[in-house]
């Protein structure tokens, strides 16, 4: 071959190999084929990985099972016959958590979790919340309910890196209330996870029941002001894969708080049953007997119901978009519940 | 002898030293010097290259086109989370691809948006205008594409060749006009091919591949390559067969162009993006008839050589069939861009050859018939292109 033809040949080979590399890249060796059933009932056979929003116990960093029935009554003491309850809440904003399988998101937390701890007191108790800001930004806690103007968590910024503040007020009114950071931009602080539930029990206790807390929330993981994930207690589809076990014939009481950012409304629909609904939990008489209530951001209430037949019953947002992005769960009604 | 050896060694060293220094620098930047250049946060990026609708399943081909490794965490259809499988696995190195299989009972002809969420929570979406079943090679489809290719490629070119006797009996000025007309037609096709290549690179190719520059590279490469080869060929032959050589080059250039056209049609059918109408076929047929004219013109001063002309018609037209097969069954945006760009380079080379041919005349290149021919050629192509 002449030198020129050699060169031409080399160029041609280079071009062909380069295009082949991009068009048909080398893929790894095939693995063994396995079958799985998706959470919507579909069946698929694959030799690869499964992309299913199924949160298993091993990977849980925020434990919705634990959160569901965990109430923090604080360190209790008595001063002049009045009950004093002291709590400590620490804010952080550097945690990265797996909020859905394979999806890692920077959550801002009260006491390391989203939502923060459920604070519980009885009407008339003196509540003292020691707030420590270990974050990199200014944070506060704004409690809904009665308190003095200087305890509002709006005009009392708590600086980053260890700033402290003591929120003090008399618990009231009886009901269920949210608390959240009230630093601007509010949307950012709330959507990252700085919120929790504050329950005030009436002096005359409510009837004995299986009590649980559900915070309806979501996450905008790609910052386009639209939620990518929805859920009750943070993890999408969690209670669908891990049904909440309840006992047949026993009264169930749910403290529901909608803190969902970005979307105008949220709602709660129950299958096979209806519930008595107490808006904000402030009156002892229910406002409705229904299977569907609508909540805007910050709205909350108490639901009470009893199942008389065993089996699986779904509960979910009847805004189907939210339901299909994670806000779906199941109650498993049993004759006896093994705790 | 000794001195030439050392000087050769010196030259070789002079060639190699810069390469050695370059590789030392690269190794340093990837190794100990990495911190020097690692500022800013690299963001993940993926490109959804293909969406196929098969029996109760949507199959998505995804490629990591970002600067970092990533993993695919979730799939959705119309922004609703769907369980899915990903093969070979969910971890994607740079430029690696994977196939996401979403069990889904989709509805034909409805639009769908397919979304994939990566490990940092960013969602990437790709829209499909109308779901159509993924086509699998079958005798029916192979022959269907062959028929389309014949209609779009072979038949119109052969019809155009029938102008041969008409051109053959022309005065030199008129003949010159028709040669220039050919150049105009080809110029339009060349620009069209580049535009098509650019469009594919914008719509289907990730920015990481620099599609526009790939078009430029391949167009220039094929132009200079073919220019060199044709000069060699033409310089060896007599003046009489020179016209045949030019006609052959015209038909090869047009053939590459028609391959690209076939690819586009096959891909559009395969991807469910066009309903193939009679109108579209008629448009292509009228448009491509002018290509026959372009082949006939350079040979019009010779005795009619029916066999040669027919062969050239087939060379120019038949690639449309292969293009439709490739585009329909194994579409890849990169190969489409490469075919189109090679075609454009070939066409520009042919234009240069024709203009040289015209210039042999004592009147030179810029005469009234030439100018009018080029302009009218472009206009004819533009008007018929509206039909498509």
Structure description:
The complex is a heterodimer of chains A (339) and B (388). In chain A, the strands form 5 sheets. In chain A, strands 14-13-16-21-18-19 form a 6-stranded mixed β-sheet, with no helix packed on it. In chain A, strands 4, 5, 6, 8 and 10 form a 5-stranded mixed β-sheet that branches. A 5-stranded mixed β-sheet of chain A has the order 15-23-22-17-20. Chain A is globular. Chain A has 5 helices and 23 strands. Chain A is 12% helix and 42% strand. Chain B has 388 residues and is of the alpha+beta class. Helix content of chain B is 63%, strand content 14%. The longest helix of chain B has 33 residues, at 172-204.
Give a short synopsis of this structure:
The complex is a heterodimer of chains A (339) and B (388). With 339 residues, chain A is mostly beta strands. Chain A has five helices and 23 strands.
């Amino acid at each position: 071959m002449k030198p020129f033809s050699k060169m031409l040949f080399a160029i041609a080979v280079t071009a062909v190999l380069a295009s082949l590399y991009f068009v048909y890249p080398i893929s790894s060796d095939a693995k063994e084929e396995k079958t799985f059933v998706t959470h919507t009932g579909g069946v698929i056979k694959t030799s690869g990985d499964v992309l299913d929003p199924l949160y298993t116990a091993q990977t849980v960093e925020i434990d919705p099972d634990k959160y569901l029935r965990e109430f923090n009554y604080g360190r209790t003491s008595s001063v002049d016959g009045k009950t004093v309850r002291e709590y400590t809440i620490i804010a952080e904003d550097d945690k990265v958590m797996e909020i859905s399988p394979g999806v890692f998101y920077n959550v801002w937390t009260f006491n390391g979790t989203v939502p923060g701890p459920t604070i519980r007191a009885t009407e008339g108790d003196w509540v003292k919340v020691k707030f420590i800001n270990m974050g990199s930004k200014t944070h506060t806690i704004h409690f809904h309910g009665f308190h003095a103007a200087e305890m509002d968590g709006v005009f009392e910024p708590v600086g980053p890196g260890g700033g402290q503040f003591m929120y003090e007020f008399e618990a009231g009114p009886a009901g269920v209330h949210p608390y959240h950071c009230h630093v601007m931009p509010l949307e950012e602080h709330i959507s990252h996870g700085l919120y929790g539930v504050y329950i005030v029990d009436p002096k005359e206790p409510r009837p004995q029941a299986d009590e649980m807390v559900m915070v309806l929330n979501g996450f905008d993981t790609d910052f386009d002001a639209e939620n990518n994930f929805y859920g009750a207690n943070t993890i999408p589809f969690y209670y669908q894969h891990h049904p909440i076990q309840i006992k047949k014939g026993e009264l169930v009481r749910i403290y529901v708080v909608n803190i969902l950012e970005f979307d105008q409304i949220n709602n709660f629909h129950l299958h096979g049953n209806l519930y008595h609904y107490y808006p904000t939990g402030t009156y002892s008489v229910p406002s409705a007997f229904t299977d569907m209530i609508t909540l805007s951001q910050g709205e909350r209430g108490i639901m009470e119901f009893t199942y008389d037949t065993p089996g699986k019953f779904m509960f979910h947002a009847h805004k189907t978009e939210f339901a299909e992005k994670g806000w779906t769960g199941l109650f498993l009604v049993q004759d006896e519940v093994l705790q | 002898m000794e001195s030439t050896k050392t000087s050769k060694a010196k030259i070789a060293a002079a060639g190699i030293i810069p390469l050695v220094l370059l590789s030392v620098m690269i190794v340093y930047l990837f190794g100990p010097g990495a911190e020097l250049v690692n500022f800013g946060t690299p963001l993940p990026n993926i490109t959804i290259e293909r969406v196929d609708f098969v029996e109760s399943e949507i199959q998505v081909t995804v490629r990591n086109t970002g600067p970092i490794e990533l993993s695919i965490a979730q799939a959705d259809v119309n922004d609703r989370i769907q369980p899915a499988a990903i093969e070979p696995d969910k971890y994607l190195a740079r430029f690696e691809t994977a196939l996401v299989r979403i069990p889904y009972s989709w509805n034909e002809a409805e639009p769908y948006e397919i979304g994939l969420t990566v490990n940092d929570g960013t969602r990437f979406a790709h829209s499909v205008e109308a779901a159509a079943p993924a086509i699998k090679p079958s005798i029916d489809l192979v022959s269907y594409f062959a028929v389309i290719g014949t209609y779009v490629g072979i038949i119109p070119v052969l019809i155009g060749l029938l102008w041969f006797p008409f051109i053959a009996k022309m005065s030199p000025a008129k003949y010159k006009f028709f040669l220039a007309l050919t150049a105009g037609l080809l110029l339009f096709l060349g620009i069209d091919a580049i535009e098509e290549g650019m469009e594919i690179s914008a719509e289907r190719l990730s920015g990481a591949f620099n599609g526009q520059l790939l078009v430029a590279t391949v167009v220039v490469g094929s132009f200079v390559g073919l220019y060199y080869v044709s000069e060699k060929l033409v310089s060896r032959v007599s003046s009489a067969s020179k016209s045949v050589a030019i006609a052959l080059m015209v038909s090869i250039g047009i053939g590459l162009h028609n391959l690209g056209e076939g690819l586009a049609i096959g891909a559009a059918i395969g991807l469910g993006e066009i309903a193939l109408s009679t109108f579209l076929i008629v448009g292509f047929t009228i448009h491509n008839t002018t290509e026959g004219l372009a082949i006939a013109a350079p040979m019009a001063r010779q005795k009619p050589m029916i066999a040669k002309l027919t062969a050239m018609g087939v060379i120019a037209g038949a690639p449309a069939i292969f293009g439709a097969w490739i585009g329909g069954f194994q579409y890849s945006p990169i190969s489409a861009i490469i075919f189109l760009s090679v075609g454009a380079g070939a066409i520009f080379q042919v234009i240069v050859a024709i203009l040289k041919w015209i210039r042999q005349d004592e009147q030179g290149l810029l005469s009234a018939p030439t100018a009018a021919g080029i302009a009218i050629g472009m206009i004819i192509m533009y008007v018929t292109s509206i039909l498509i």
